[in-house]
Amino acid sequence: MALIVQKYGGTSVGSVERIQAVAQRVFRTVKAGNSLVVVVSAMGKTTDGLVKLANEITSNPSRREMDMLLSTGEQVSIALLSMALHRLGQPAISLTGAQVGIVTEAEHTRARILRIETDRLNRHLQKGEVVVVAGFQGISATDDLEITTLGRGGSDTSAVALAAALQADFCEIYTDVPGILTTDPRLVPDAQLMTEITSDEMLELASLGAKVLHPRAVEIARNYGIPLVVRSSWTDDPGTWVISPPPKPRPLEGLELVRPVDAVEFDTDQAKVSLLRVPDRPGVAARLFGEIASQDLDVDLIIQSIHEGNSNDIAFTVTKDSLNKAEAVANAIIPALCKPLLGESIPALDAAEVMVEQQIAKVTISGAGMIGRPGVAAQMFSTLADAGINIQMISTSEVKVSCVIAQEDCDRAIAVLCEAFEVTSSPVSEGTGYRATELDIAPSASAVSSAPAALHPPVRGVALDLKQARLAIRQVPDRPGMAAKIFKLLADQNISVDMIIQSQRCRVVNGMTTRDIACTVAQMDGELARLALEKAASELGYGEVLVDAAIAKVSIVGSGMVGQPGVAARMFTALAEQHINIQMIATSEIKISCLVAEDDGVRALQAIHAAFGLSGSQKIQVPA
Ligand code: ASP
Ligand code: MG
Hints:
Layout: E1 3-8, H1 16-31, E2 35-40, H2 46-57, H3 63-70, H4 72-87, E3 92-95, H5 97-100, E4 102-104, E5 113-116, H6 119-126, E6 130-134, E7 137-140, E8 147-149, H7 155-166, E9 170-175, E10 196-198, H8 199-204, H9 206-209, H10 215-224, E11 228-232, E12 240-243, E13 263-279, H11 284-294, E14 299-304, E15 311-318, H12 323-338, H13 348-351, E16 353-366, H14 376-386, E17 393-397, E18 400-406, H15 410-420, E19 435-438, H16 445-449, E20 461-465, E21 468-477, H17 482-492, E22 497-502, E23 507-509, E24 512-522, H18 526-535, H19 537-540, E25 545-548, E26 551-557, H20 567-577, E27 584-588, E28 591-597, H21 601-611
Parallel strand pairs: 1-2, 1-9, 2-6, 3-6, 4-7, 9-11, 10-12
Antiparallel strand pairs: 4-5, 7-8, 11-12, 13-15, 13-16, 13-19, 14-15, 16-18, 17-18, 20-26, 21-24, 21-25, 22-24, 23-24, 26-28, 27-28
Bound molecules: aspartic acid and magnesium ion.
């Protein structure tokens, strides 16, 4: 007999008939000998409707009253589902978040769960009752017992948190899609259902998967090792399992990480190769990394920054012992990369140059808590700046920010970052290779990615994000503290930054060395970000600020790409074959993202999806 937490989304309980169908499934699961806690969302689009009502009264409702309002939706569906179960003869009781004892921070509209009191739950379960819990809501730990909500889509988080607190055998998320797909089937009709995905991959795919599974739910599943499955409410198909590495013991108190960062990692066995001023046209990255891969060199970070005029800078890191080979490959390929196209008269070859740097280290902060929380990257940059450490390269992904710094600064960087983000340092593995520091009670962030590559396909899923805008900040003085100030400024405006890239190229302006910094933000924040940055331009000493909303970000994600040369080359080649120009590249261990023109976005997604053999013949139906 298993203890199972099932969660049903809004569509699954969208009508009386559907609630009855859910009751049938719950009833069957109990009859099969299981104990059941069921978490439900509000019916259909109820929550949206409530938000609309509030906005009809005021454009700026109090967050406390919003919680009071939005939490009512779930109270309707739990009562109805309990009644439907009673009609089937199944003992059941509905409980609000407060009645269950889902205790949260007092942050209205985005509270995190601190702990769940399980006494009452267990009492009902022991009596053979199904406990039907209102998702998305909790009660504050303060004396005033305020009703809180966890943020839109938060019922997933309620369900997985309950599974963790009750030490349930697994948690099932029932929804209106058959599981997690390799990409968006509305854009790529031959997208396929995944049978499984690791929680780390799922987090990096947040922009693809967030609608199916709340990232905070994935984070809890990873931290507590809760097996999680996403399945269709309409069928008995198995769905997609989200698998996590075995967790390290971790207290249930402070259940949701209130900290945004749960690991500080570093790697001193890296060296950097930069190609400066190579032509800005399709195929350049593909040829370069194709050649690197054919020499069997494994590349870690890759960044390509924004460019002025018609040239780009591309930089990448390799292990120190492959630096010479990588440098030779880069030098040998420059003439081919720079060959003028027919009718072109750029003096590309003269301008291009290869630079290498051996004494570098990569420091990374990681944690799902940074998703949607402005200011985490800024805090990393300012922490490094306060220690007088200059940042040479920056590359970001959904759940990581990596900085390349001088190797001699590495120990100091780790110490100050661990302190700033309250992470305890504990090396995972000794030796020349990869070492990491992390919170001792957190599961090893590298456990999944260091598993044999054969276990994981190199690429699990491909995502397209058309909702971002690119900001370019020109001629930023190259001294500690600049990135910190710039991203603090954006964080103060509550603007979340996604990709951040600092260019390799230095330019001397009025006797001062400068670099360009580019980043992406949500399209709706683009203008606000530009204005905020422009206002500070003369004070901070940088040049022009440009915003471009006509961009698309395509990303591939897969734990199997670690230690497998050639994955980046395959992605870039797929784009080159479509004559799609890459504007920016940023990578993390298990993710590679490229910015392309917005008009090329869908074609880019389709080409990359096909290039990694993710297409299949099964037609997946999803609601519009
Ligand atoms: N009803 C809430 C929402 O629509 C929570 C959820 O469904 O997960 O955001
Ligand atoms: Mg949802």
